[in-house]
Amino acid sequence: MLENVRRDRRVRAIAFPQKTLARPVVIDGVGLHSGVEIHMVLHPAEADRGIVFRRTDLVSQGREVSDIPALYDHVADTTLSTAIGNAAGTTISTIEHLMAAFSALGVDNALVEIDAAEVPVLDGSSEIFIEKIEAAGLEKLDAPRKAIRILKPVVVEDGLKRAALLPGEGFKLFFEIDFDNEVIGHQEIEADLRDPFFAEDILRARTFCLRKDIEAMWAVGLAKGGSLENAVVVDTHAILNEEGLRYEDEFVRHKLLDAVGDLALLGMPLIGRYEGSRAGHAMNNRVLRALMADRSAWEIVEYSEDNRSSAPLRAELRAIPAD
Questions:
Q1: Which of 2, 36, 88, 99 is the most buried (most CB within 10 A)?
Q2: Is 281 a catalytic residue?
Q3: d(CA 137, CA 3)
Q4: Alpha helices in 87-228 (DSSP H)
Q5: pLDDT tens digits, residue range 239-252?
Q6: What is the pLDDT of residues 132-187, one digit of tens each?
Q7: What gap in Å lies between CA 98 and CA 19, rounded to an integer?
Q8: Catalytic, out of 74, 97, 254, 281
Q9: Is 35 left (phi over 0), alpha (psi -120 to 50) or beta?
């Protein structure tokens, strides 16, 4: 009993401690691209563990269970989703919506056990992940939260596509899209991840696709689980979903949601500004790799609410924990 009291006092003494889940969270659903039924459990994890995915179905196949850290340098594929993998060839795809929920709620550490190679799509947004995690509650850990502060601009471009990480306070984001479709067209949005309305205003936006692209996705084995229940489908002149859109600019909001999930693969919160123009999962991963490749472009700091008082940590601390 006394030991628990002491531990609680230590946690309260840390201004911004790391967080994990207060109890396990069970989530069942279908995979957007695989179309299979998936069972997933989010477990609490110790400080400095980060977010780790574990394929439990490999046990029944007689294969060794392999963990995959949710980190930018483990991204294995970015075709219509973000997939991570490890040296053993184990992969998990469509992680971005769950990672966006973890990022928005400030979950630093969790073990995600999953019996398939894809995270359930649920309603196509992060809303259900948010609701289930909030219902379980969060627990403070006896370790300070760390963040990566951007010190100078890092920009990657590919034709009209652009992704940039810039210095700044807090974590602000800008995104713009431009589709050759009269329903979507040009949309842009600014947001602040630390705004208390961020989860409601951004993370409820659903994934979307153009009707004309569906058969092409099927042909390469993707979107097998897609439906009007988990995606917004856009025809030439209209939305096919009977209920319509959740927001007039739901399309760009979802692209921003994806970016938040992809940027969470840095393994720590970001302090700075992200800008994306026609960017997708590939560009988001490229800008993270470019950032981390330039040691003069970032520093590790202890996280604080205003970030102006964040003190740089010792230079020998690594930005990304070892596998």
A1: 99
A2: yes
A3: 23
A4: 96-105, 127-136, 198-201, 214-219
A5: 999 999 999 999 99
A6: 999 999 999 999 999 999 999 999 999 999 999 999 999 999 999 999 999 999 99
A7: 16
A8: 281
A9: left
